[in-house]
Amino acid sequence: MNTTADIPVLKARLRVRRPGFDLDVDLALPGRGVSVLHGPSGSGKTTCLRLIAGLERAPDCAVSLGDTVWQGETVFTPVHRRDIGYVFQEANLFPHLSVSLNLEYGRKRRDRAGLVDFDHLVGLLGIGHLLARAPATLSGGERQRVAIARALLSAPRLLLMDEPLAALDARRKDEILPYLDRLHAELDVPVVYVSHSGNEVARLADHLVLLDQGRVIAEGPATTLLSRLDLPENLLDEAGTILDGQVTHHDSAYGLARLAFPGGEINFVHPDARHGQPLRVQIKERDISLALDRPAATSIQNLLPVTITSLADSANPAHVRVQIDTGGTLMVACITRQSRDRLGLRVGMRLWAQIKSVAVLG
Amino acid sequence: MNDDIVQITFFTLWVAALGTAVILPPGILLGWLLARRSWPGKTVVETLVALPLVIPPVATGLILLKLFGRRGPLGGFLENVLGLEIVFTWKAVVLATAVMSLPLLVRAARVAFEEVDRRLEDTARTLGASPLDVFFSITLPLARRGLLAGTVLAFARALGEFGATVMVAGMIPGETITLSLGIYQHVQLGEDSAALGLLGISVALAFAAVWGSERLLRKRPA
Predict the structure, then answer these.
(1) Spatial separation of the C-alpha atoms in residues B190 and B172, rounded to whole Å
(2) Residue B127: its chain A contacts at CB < 8 A?
(3) pLDDT, tens digit, 9 for 90 and up, residues B71-127
């Protein structure tokens, strides 16, 4: 997370009291990268987003991006005058307009829109061949890509995404995620992304805010947060540990790449990683195993010397969760309680973490 | 006699078109307000607009006569200030058809607007469109088929209006006689064949209007 002082920060004080719903959230999100608001349904994620956008209005709220105050005690900038892009769960393409007119819609209404190169963005999202089509003829994934392009073409200073993949089936999700990765890598628009999927958190989040019942329960850089043992287990279960690093080696004959991250190196399966390329990998906690001695003659490619920093029980009584330090990065492993007792694991012990290369998701 | 039929036909089409045109802006606005906004007195206005549908047309005509007559509150004002004479002129025919058609248009407009997905309007706002801009670029185009069908329906209703018209405009040959008034008058005078001629034209016009409206409703948007 390279937050520096000159990047505008999104600040939001959000208070809503409704029968059966109570939201009280203070956010200060970095003006760069993707901030994910994560929580179970009903935790207030979407309401946060709608309040930030100005689609909903509540007193006692304050929203500002950098020096621009969108809502304050005497200020309320209507939605259409906030420089935001909003991607909804449904693509919401205008059915009476062609794809290209949909893309032009925001573009011709915002002064800043000249800042975005139309052809570049259309290429980035792979929708160049769809421009003349009617929205009704597109697949779900294509529609959502057009919706994302439409929002970005208005040159927003902030992109708000409300579970943009939730309405899609697994195949369509996999079709869109690489495009989101590319946007993430190439565009400098800060994103606030609402999601209840641990996988999306692991893949996209730079900064992570965990919400529950209208309250923030934890917040911080995603890599740090996902290695904490005191957070909702189901999230970590799905997201796992994430490692941000750089590719240091690629073996195209075997289809393997090596990633250097703070405190170690790891081999993983990747067909075409470039040397020096920044990359994120995800390791589920049940894919890490622990050994007291350095195992010899094993198919497991990654052996990392680690120290146990913390142990915690799991919701499943047969499991325990072990936080380990590779000498710069914290990871979480999930093992059986029996293994813990058999190996006599306790905090401070040095041992070997084994991670199968095929289990590292790049 | 043939000249008569032509004159009556065109006069009827003309007042029905004018009556419909006059109520189009307020009718669409009212339909939108009923569909999209909540405001004090909404139910009262809703009921008032629907009233001409349920009370006898002749009674509506009498109310209009009292309101717009020379000694009526509105009629007096219009005549003294603007020099406009309404009752027993062709303007009264337009007035009667407009009032009788308004409920149909408002109802259709309301339904048409309610069917427009609000999320599309929200999306347009996030893309920089002001409320008025959203209305003209999203809401109106998406409601267009329902609005068109409502307009045709209002026009068809206006073509056949009798009760309110006869009260407020009377039967003045060459001045306020429409197809329906003409049919009634011819029958009264025992001129059945002339009445049948007008009847044929009436049926043909109504058929064309309803058929057009059905077609508009059935056609799916692209």
Answers:
(1) 18
(2) 80, 85, 105-106, 109-110, 150-151, 154
(3) 888 888 888 888 888 889 999 999 999 999 999 999 999 999 999 999 999 999 999
**Domain extent at residue B194:** 2-214
Name the nearest CA neighbour of A194 among A231, A160, A233: A160
| Nearest residue to B125 (alpha-carbon basis) of A115, A69, A53, A93 | A53
Q: Do B100 and B69 form a contact (C-beta atoms < 8 A)?
A: no
Inspect the interface and report whether the beta carbons of A86 and B126 lie closer than 8 Å.
yes
Cα nearest neighbour of B120 on chain A: A92
Cβ-defined contact of B129 to A109 (cutoff 8 Å) = yes
Instruction: Tell me if B76 is assigned to some domain.
Output: yes
> What distance in Å separates the CA atoms of residue A63 and residue A53, rounded to the nearest whole number?
9
Q: Which of B119, B128, B221 sits opposite A96 (nearest CB)?
A: B221
pLDDT category at A361 given cuts 50, 70, 90 is confident
Q: Is A185 or B21 the better-scoring residue by pLDDT?
A: B21
Residue of A nearest to B127 (CA): A106
Of the options 3.40.50.300, 3.40.50.150, 3.30.1230.20, 3.40.50.2000, the CATH number for the domain spanning A10-225:
3.40.50.300
Chosen for mutation from A81, A92, A103, A157 (greatest number of chain B CBs closer than 10 Å) is A92
Q: Tell me the CATH number at B42.
A: 1.10.3720.10
